[in-house]
Design goal:
Elements: H1 5-26, H2 42-46, E1 48-57, E2 63-68, E3 77-83, E4 90-97, E5 102-109, E6 120-128, E7 134-140, E8 144-151
Antiparallel strand pairs: 1-4, 1-6, 2-3, 2-5, 5-8, 6-7
């Protein structure tokens, strides 16, 4: 028996529609019962934690700047900018983003390139009021250093 192709096609179509309807309920695609995904909470990005940052330099730099680049294409936020500081190590207090890993830029300028066979270096220790202490080290033979690092205070909120 060959069957009736139009009837088989109609039964197959009805079966697929029923399975598609059941599948959409199963994976939560039913718009009447599920809420749309919430937009990212901008207030979480704005939440900050106060942190002490210790900078240890191989030799005192002419200047250094710590910047938080804009994630929205707006203006970057300069967290601290220092020039002609003879203190080594240096201690600064800044407000850092809390609850999420965030990228920061560090720019350092020394009076001259490092002597042959040596490096300029900077070690950074970030100690937030609450969260994990972290350290970073960067080396350069040139008199300018431009580094990028990602920091998180370890105080993440999981949903």
């Amino acid at each position: 028996m060959r069957g009736l192709p139009p009837l088989q096609a109609l039964l197959l179509l009805i079966t697929l529609v029923i399975l598609g309807f059941a599948g959409s309920h199963f994976i939560g695609m039913d718009e009447t019962r599920s809420q749309p995904a919430p937009l990212p909470d901008t207030s979480a990005e704005e939440q900050a934690v106060e942190a002490e940052i210790e900078f240890i330099f191989s030799s005192p730099p002419l200047s250094y700047t710590l910047t938080q680049p804009s994630v929205t294409g707006g203006k970057d936020t300069i967290l601290l900018q220092t020039s002609d500081s003879q203190e080594n190590p240096c201690y600064e207090t800044v407000e850092l983003v809390s609850h999420q890993p965030t990228t920061y830029w560090l720019d350092v300028v020394w009076p001259e390139d490092a002597i042959d066979g040596t490096h300029h270096f900077v070690q950074i220790y970030i100690s937030p009021d609450h969260g994990n202490r972290q350290g970073f080290s960067f080396f350069s033979t040139a008199k300018t250093m431009n580094e990028t690092f990602e920091y998180s205070n370890g105080d993440h909120h999981h949903e």
